[in-house]
Amino acid sequence: MARLLKGSSTLTGATHTASGVSQGTVDALNLGLSENLKTYAGDVTIGATKASVICGAVTIPNLTVNGNLAVTTSLSVTTDLDIGASGSLNIIG
To answer: Domain segments of the chain: what residues?
Structure first.
């Protein structure tokens, strides 16, 4: 997932599942710059109560969207894309 950066912070690729988002770290910092992995090794799931952004171009093996997901530029899902009944995927650009 995209991570907002402050100063020289970098994306660690740690898994964060307690808030309903997995594969990547999500932090709300105050600068507005963001980065994420170009290729994810694990699956990505967006929880039903979450709204997330992934900066593309990005490749993900399996993507499940139960909440709202915006992707910039392009998205490549190599195995399975599942958009739940209340999920929304928006690819921008």
So the answer is: 3-92
